[in-house]
Amino acid sequence: MPSFKNLPLVPPIEPMEARAVKEIPEGSQWQYEPKWDGFRCVAFRDGENVAMQSKSGQPLERYFPEIVKALRALKTDRFILDGELAIELKGALDFDALLQRIHPAESRVKRLAVETPTSYAIFDVLSLEDRPKIYEDPLKARRKRLEAFAAKHLKKNTRLALSRSTADIAIARGWLAGGLAHFDGVIAKKNDEPYHFGDRNAVVKIKRVYTADCVVGGFRLAKDGKTIASLLLGLYDDAGLLHLVGFVGSMSGAERARAAELLKPIVEGPGFTGAQPGGPSRWGSREAQWHPVAPRIVVEVQYDRVTGDRFRHGARLLRWRPDKAPQQCAMEQMVRSG
């Protein structure tokens, strides 16, 4: 670990976190920011020494050499910044491309740093040369100093940028409704609070959610071999192929019974005719044992994010849709971050 003897904090630290709420809080005590879809990153610089850490405290600098270079190029020797790493491809933030950067092969990391360069959106400051313990100041003062820092140092830096902020709840509501398609929610912070290390008391997050009508292409059973543990969801592409796009795992007892009643009588292959369970997947081997069903049952689900052509997290079952034709459940329903 490089020396950071001239900084008041040494990595790793516990970044300030946010707790989830359903609605944007209102009042003069709140500052609003868009919620980025990337990797949280706290950046440290002391002279030529640069460190980048993840939310969990893991070092990130070897995976993002272009950001290390950009931080080292700033005309100031000492700072600690808090922000988010993201990759934009074809006008949208691409979380899969970001995941590809966490790789042990240095040659691959260097190649991707050129092919899919990362940006660092800075939304807070913990230390500056002339105010080493600025984390003790209220957010309103930190933001003012961060804006001055950005105006002085970031204008000519293509990899670093100041994340936007507003005190106008109408603007924040517009972001949440889709006014900023790159982002997936809103962060609200109390502007009279200092930086709370590892705490969620002064920050809340409000995530965008979306719905889609999906075909149930299969299911997995629980360990008892009888209870339906999850529904496997599919959407049709333009060629008429049914692709696996996600799953529903959290259901009530009544919903599981309803699923068994509807699905067990129609078990038959292939279930999915496009992308199927059991192959390479971020869900690992959990999908290996599954039962295909005829594409007759439609459900409406709620999801928050899409990565590639799948819901990144488990979807939430909203209702069964006997009124909906399976062929109407198309991939175009999926709302990506861009």
Structural class: alpha+beta
Q: Could you give the order of the helices and strands?
A: EEEEHEEEHHEHEHEEEEEHEEEEE
Question: So, CATH architecture of the largest domain?
Answer: 2-Layer Sandwich
Poorly predicted tracts of residues: 279-287
What is the CATH superfamily of the largest domain? DNA ligase/mRNA capping enzyme
Any idea what the shape is?
elongated
Total domain units: 2
User: C-alpha Rg, in Å?
Assistant: 23 Å
In CATH terms, what is the fold-level topology of the largest domain? D-amino Acid Aminotransferase, Chain A, domain 1
Average pLDDT metric: 91
The residue fraction in helices comes out at 10-25%
Termini separation comes to 37 Å
CATH class of the largest domain: Alpha Beta
Q: How many strands, what sense, and barrel or not for the largest sheet?
A: 6 strands, antiparallel
Question: How are the SSEs placed, and which strands pair?
Answer:
Layout lengths: L18 E2 L9 E5 L4 E8 L2 E5 L11 H9 L4 E9 L1 E2 L2 E2 L1 H6 L5 H10 L3 E10 L10 H15 L6 E3 L6 H11 L5 E6 L12 E5 L2 E12 L6 E9 L5 E7 L4 H11 L27 E2 L5 E6 L2 E2 L2 E2 L4 E5 L18
Parallel strand pairs: 1-11, 8-9
Antiparallel strand pairs: 2-10, 3-4, 3-5, 5-8, 6-7, 10-11, 12-13, 12-15, 12-16, 13-14, 16-19, 17-18
